Amino acid sequence: MDTQAMDAKMGAGGSAKPFEGEGIIRVDNLNLYAGKTHILKNVNIEIPKNKLTVILGPSGCGKTTLLKCMNRLTDLTPDIKVSGNIYIRDQHTGELPVFGAKTDIVALRRKMGLLSQRPFPLPMNIYNNIAYGLKLRGKYTRAELNDLVEYYLRQVNLWEEVKDRLRSPAVRLSIGQQQRLCLARGLAVNPDIILADEPTSALDPVSSEAIEKQFAALSKDFTLVMVTHVLRQARRIADYVIFMYLGEVIEMRPAQEFFEDPREEQTKKYLSGAFN
Amino acid sequence: MEQRSLAEVRALVKSHEKPARTGRKLGEEIFFRSLMNIASVLIVGVMGVILVSIFYKGISTFSWSMLTEDMGSGFYLNRGGGIKNAIVGSLYLSLSATLLALVVGLACALCMNVYMVKFPKLLNTARFLLDLIWGVPSIIYGAFGFSLMVFFGVKTSLLAGIITVALFILPIMIRAIDEVMKTVPTGLSESVLSMGSTRSELSYKVYVRQCFPGIVTAVLLAFGRAVGDAASVLYVTGENSKTPTSLLDNATTLPVAIYNQINSPYAATQDKAYASAFVLTLIILLISLLSRYISKRYQKYRIY
Ligand SMILES: Nc1ncnc2c1ncn2[C@@H]1O[C@H](COP(=O)(O)OP(=O)(O)OP(=O)(O)O)[C@@H](O)[C@H]1O
Ligand SMILES: [Mg+2]
């Protein structure tokens, strides 16, 4: 399928496409119920490739749930029902449905890293935390592994801090260091998309800024989707903003427009701090 | 309540407040603390008396030849011989049974915690049933194994004992591992899966590592039950006054040997029961120390 035909198709189904260029994730009429609670309501969005898209919204509006749908972590929760679908665009195979009987969940998740609010390093040493992700996808010699581990640790500015204790348990790192380690581990899996759920909320200001800078830099090569509650952070690094309220997407706009000229009533209230 | 100011509510709560650690409260605390202390002293004391008497009486009747000689025909009749056959029999039996139960039990516990997360009701039922089975006395397993053997016309053997004991310790193994695996943070599973790991990689590379100390404890618990249990194997392994050389041989175990020694009409043989108990205790002690050493090496990697 060529890009134009796909664009046309993406334009259909009522999905908003507020950007030029290529989209990579298309959420199509997604509804999610947990038990009888309607958590996501008719979500239609598209996420641009190699840009940083921030999801904003008051607590409990379904941001985390939406992220978890994208890589099917919802599979771990009992009693969840989903209708509609999410499509991941792939140059070779066209659009890949996320919810589908034939979907290869492992392949899907390899395309999408997830950085959670609290870092969860693997119960191994620092070196193996990175090597694990590499070894998942291929065979490497010891020397290649050493090089790559160093490369990814440097990517997240962690190398200097840990180079002398690569064999010590990852849990002994500080929380900020652990979060950077998790980011490096996620990068080592070589995904196209990185989902991040309030990745800086458990961190001190310095580590938080380090992660934030990383994200800004990574958005050249990766598609980033980040949830945050820090408006100033969103202003600093977002290319696009999705605003959610009570399980619905209220608007999705380029960041500058969004902050300077919010269209919807709820957005204005949110930006003026009425919900916080 | 809604209309009241915070100050009013705080005053209300304050007016209900009991003085901290004076009067009845203090008495209660002293009472329960002394109860706890008495209980601890009792437990430690009783354990101490048992251990000391086993060690004291055991060492005095212990001789190295007990470890190197089989019972032969006249051990219970005070005609010499040792308990090598029972020691080796017990080790063969309980180590193999523990290994068997570990392989099956680990798979079950992983299945419950990694694969069955979507079905909490089924999971609860499974846990409930396993807890029930845990309470079934081991003699029932022995009798069950024995009746099966009679039905199929199989002779008593070490192998039959291993299978019976493995079945008997399996629920202990599963539930002990399961309890530890329940504590694995969901966030850890989510992170690992979202890297594109399969569920079996999540199981064997992450769960097993994360829960390693707990798995060791479960193995220890199960091994302790296996090595110390006389009843479940009484009918199924038969008895053997020589060291078993194949899985199809009969085997005598230490607890059964101790039981028979105590029932012997000769005082000297009865005393040797303490030496046998001493050996049994030493085996458990060694295994405990070994497993503590192993689990310590992995403890430090645990995520919490
Ligand atoms: N398994 C579940 N069962 C029932 N309700 C759930 C479940 N998971 C989430 N919810 C509900 O769905 C809503 C959205 O939750 P979600 O975690 O996505 O919010 P959020 O936008 O990420 O909030 P926050 O900013 O506080 O993290 C909440 O009201 C939550 O209580
Ligand atoms: Mg959230």
Could you walk me through the main structural features you see in this protein, from its secondary elements to its overall organization?
By secondary structure, chain A is an alpha/beta fold. Helix content of chain A is 37%, strand content 26%. Chain A has helices at residues 3-11, 63-70, 105-111, 126-137, 142-155, 159-162, 175-188, 205-218, 231-237, 255-260, 265-271; strands at residues 23-34, 37-48, 52-56, 80-90, 94-97, 112-115, 193-197, 223-227, 240-245, 248-254. In chain A, strand 9 (240-245) and strand 10 (248-254) form a beta hairpin. In chain A, helix 4 (126-137) runs parallel beside helix 7 (175-188) and helix 5 crosses helix 7 (175-188). Chain A is globular, with a radius of gyration of 19 Å. The relative contact order of chain A is 0.16. Chain B is mainly alpha-helical and 304 residues long. Chain B is built from 13 helices and no strands. Chain B has helices at residues 6-16, 23-61, 65-68, 84-115, 120-134, 138-152, 158-181, 186-194, 199-210, 212-228, 231-234, 254-262, 267-299. In chain B, helix 12 (254-262) packs antiparallel against helix 13 (267-299). The longest helix of chain B is centred in the N-terminal third of the chain and has 39 residues, at 23-61. Chain B is globular and about 90 Å long. Chains A and B meet through helix 3, strand 6, helix 4 and helix 7 of A and helix 8 and helix 9 of B. The structure holds adenosine-5'-triphosphate and magnesium ion (MG). Residues 63-64, 197 of chain A line the site of magnesium ion. Adenosine-5'-triphosphate (ATP) binds at residues 34-35, 37, 39, 57, 59-65, 77 of chain A.
